[in-house]
Write a structure and sequence with these properties.
This protein is α/β, with parallel strands linked by helices. The chain folds into 3 domains: 9-64, no CATH class; 76-224 and 395-424, Quinone Oxidoreductase, Chain A, domain 1; 232-369, NAD(P)-binding Rossmann-like Domain (Rossmann fold). Helices cover 26% and strands 23% of the residues. It has helices at residues 9-16, 56-64, 113-121, 179-182, 224-227, 230-242, 258-269, 282-290, 304-311, 327-335, 358-361, 377-385, 404-414; strands at 22-23, 32-33, 76-83, 86-92, 101-110, 141-142, 146-154, 166-169, 172-173, 193-194, 207-211, 215-217, 250-254, 274-278, 295-297, 317-322, 337-345, 366-369, 395-400, 420-424. The strands form 5 sheets. Strands 5, 7, 8, 11, 12, 19 and 20 form a 7-stranded mixed sheet that branches. A 6-stranded parallel sheet has the order 15-14-13-16-17-18, sandwiched between helices. Strands 4-3-6 form a 3-stranded antiparallel sheet, with no helix packed on it. The longest helix has 13 residues, at 230-242. The chain is globular.
């Protein structure tokens, strides 16, 4: 193979073996060090002066590396939300990290229930007319907030991670200065939002740029697929903590979607002695049983409170988790409780509902709201790393970004057997 002047045969061989440690530089900046980033698709040493002198083999390699021969970045694809049932795979500009920010190459991103809700009935949380106070953006926005990836580049002043580190992102947007943020309760921030819903980029893209404090390094034995499920597991662990679940207590879960099943995993890890799941879809009841549920109930065919009383010898449960977002689920959750029990509401609601407060006051029961997470990511990563939380059974399909609408959103709408679909953007 003929190599153009200025690039030696030896360097060309090192490029093909990904041994140079250099990445293509933006136009006019020459060559920049890539700090040992392992992705061969981005590693090549060259200068703007030598671009026109390379042979055809290296020209192809440079193109695969994401740059054309004029030094311009090749188009990057991302999933942008334009409105209800209107998600488009479009070209976007490659983001550049500013000081204090981290640029991440996304490996896997999960389709969340909130993404699906926006697709079917939104925009709900996505800003439509008024820009989000932290991102300044309105739709269209890049979707995706359950994702893992690898650090590609860091802005000035970043010390927690370096290029090549494997990471997961905690996507709650927060201002850092309101009274809730100052208390450490950033999930209640006065201006809160979500990366991938409120603007600021998202995980259904090849690259995303986030503040350094949102990034959590992965334990050495935790792979990218599991790590992409850290976000829903953090939601579940936060709910378990809000319910003050103690080892040996009895639990009921209403709804066996991704969050309900994640709560099942978290409750078992926390030491629940008995877990009962109510779910209308047979495939999801079977999934719950496979994950360790002691009893599963079809609420269309049986009285859930009656069955729960039977299997708990008349006592009821100590903690009930409502994840279905249905009035029947909340009503059954209240009726399934022992005296002094707690209902943790994890689901979001489209309509107002009525609650019989005598079922709370007389037996001294509680209803507790649970929103997102606040400090749970490190614990979730540790629990996954040591095997106490294993989210692999939740994954039912893996697709590429181009299949997001038909193979992701529409499949989840039409096929209730699906639980968690992972998307590979790159």
């Amino acid at each position: 193979m003929k190599i153009g002047s200025g690039i030696s045969q030896r360097l060309h061989a090192r490029v093909l073996r990904n041994e140079t440690g250099y990445a293509a530089a933006p136009e006019g900046r020459g060559v920049r060090k890539a700090s040992g980033h392992p992705r061969a698709s981005r590693m090549v040493a060259f200068s703007q002066q030598s671009v026109g002198m390379v042979g055809p083999g290296l020209k192809r390699f440079l193109a695969l590396a994401g740059r054309n021969l004029e030094g311009e970045g090749l188009p990057l694809k991302a999933a942008l939300y334009h409105g209800r049932r209107d998600v488009r795979i479009q070209e976007v500009e490659e983001p550049v990290p500013e000081p204090g920010q981290v640029k991440i190459e996304v490996r896997w991103c999960g389709i969340c229930g909130s993404d699906l809700h926006e697709y079917r009935a939104g925009p709900v949380f996505i800003p439509r007319e008024d820009p989000h106070p932290l991102t300044g953006q309105t739709l269209p926005v890049i979707l995706g907030h359950e994702f893992s990836g690898q650090v590609f580049e860091t802005g000035g002043g970043v010390t927690r991670v370096v290029p090549g580190d494997r990471v997961v992102v905690e996507p709650i947007l927060r201002c850092g200065v309101c009274r809730w943020c100052r208390r450490g309760q950033y999930n209640l921030c006065a201006k809160s939002g979500f990366l991938g819903l409120s603007g600021g980029g998202g995980g259904f893209a090849h690259y995303v740029v986030v503040p350094e404090e949102y990034v959590h390094p992965l334990p050495g034995n935790l792979d990218f697929e599991k790590a992409a499920l850290a976000e829903p597991l953090a939601v579940a662990l936060h709910a378990v903590r809000r319910g003050q679940l103690r080892a040996g207590e009895r639990v009921s879960i209403f709804g066996a979607g991704p969050i309900g099943l994640a709560v099942l995993l978290a409750a078992k890890a926390a030491g629940a002695s008995q877990v009962i799941v109510s779910e209308v879809v047979m495939a999801r009841r079977e999934k719950a049983a496979a994950l360790g549920a002691d009893t599963t109930i079809d609420p269309r065919k049986e009285s859930v409170p009656r069955v729960i009383r039977q299997v708990t010898r008349g006592a009821g449960v100590n903690v009930a988790f409502e994840t279905s977002g249905t009035p029947g689920g909340l009503g059954d959750a209240l009726r399934s409780l022992d005296k002094g029990g707690r209902v943790v509401v994890v689901s979001l609601w489209e309509d107002r509902i009525q609650v019989d407060f005598n079922r709370l006051v007389i037996p001294e029961r509680e209803i507790i709201g649970s929103l997102g997470y606040c400090g749970e990511f490190p614990a979730v990563l540790a629990l996954m790393a040591d095997g106490r939380l294993d989210p692999y059974p939740l994954i039912t399909r893996r697709i590429d970004l181009v299949d997001l609408v038909a193979g992701g959103f529409e499949r989840l709408v039409q096929n209730p057997k699906e639980v968690k679909i992972l998307v590979q953007p790159g």
